[in-house]
Amino acid sequence: MTKNELISYLEDVDHGLIQFQNQGNLKCTLRYRPSNLMAFNDMVTSTNTDSILNHYNQYIYLLISYDINKGGINTRADLASKQHIDDYLTKDFISKVSLRSGKSELRLLDHISVNMFGYTSSSEIMLVFERSEADDNDLKFVIEEGPLSFERWNFEIRSKDIRSVPELKLES
User: Fold this and answer.
1) Segments of the chain with pLDDT less than 70
2) CATH architecture for residues 3-163
3) What is d(CA 106, CA 99) in angstroms, rounded to the nearest whole number?
4) Helix (H) or strand (E) run with residue 98 in it
């Protein structure tokens, strides 16, 4: 499967790897990103693709997006809310998230916030969690209460959906 085909597969709600929840004027989207997609750019430029993929396979990647008014910043209040969310994602967010696999809580290792400072209604953060080697349980992702008085968000990605992700082939 090509990179573009894999992204289309991951963005299809029927596959269970992208999930949405709404609270008030705020929409939260959780996207699972497989290791081979995360490693793709490094693998294209290297002859040692197995080593690169083994490195990326040590982690679980989740992309979280917040969107105000489901697509538009229409007022100054929307812009203030957007700036509040961007500030939250860059400072406090990581203390409010958890990922469980079975009875184990997986450790958050890194996060990257994409902050557009008012140019878009959406804010994103990539989370990188340790992967439990012997674990094949569903992933339960929780975001505790946060900005704009939203309540707890709960997401679950089934292990069978993760196992069903097609292999990414390097394009020649």
Assistant:
1) 69-79, 82, 90, 114-122, 133-135, 146-149, 171-172
2) Sandwich (2.60)
3) 6
4) strand 97-101
Q: Count the alpha carbons within 13 Å of 124 in the hemisphere toward its beta carbon.
A: 11
pTM of the model: 0.85
Q: Cα(18)–Cα(98) distance, rounded to whole angstroms?
A: 17
Domain ranges for the chain, please list them: 3-163
Query: Hey, is 57 helix, strand or coil?
Result: coil
99 phi, psi to nearest 5 deg: -130, 125
Please give the structure tokens belonging to residue 116.
């557009």
Which residues contact residue 26 at a Cβ distance below 8 angstroms, ignoring those fewer than 6 apart?
66, 67, 68, 81, 85, 148, 150
Residue whose entry in the numeric block shows the structure tokens 């860059």: 90
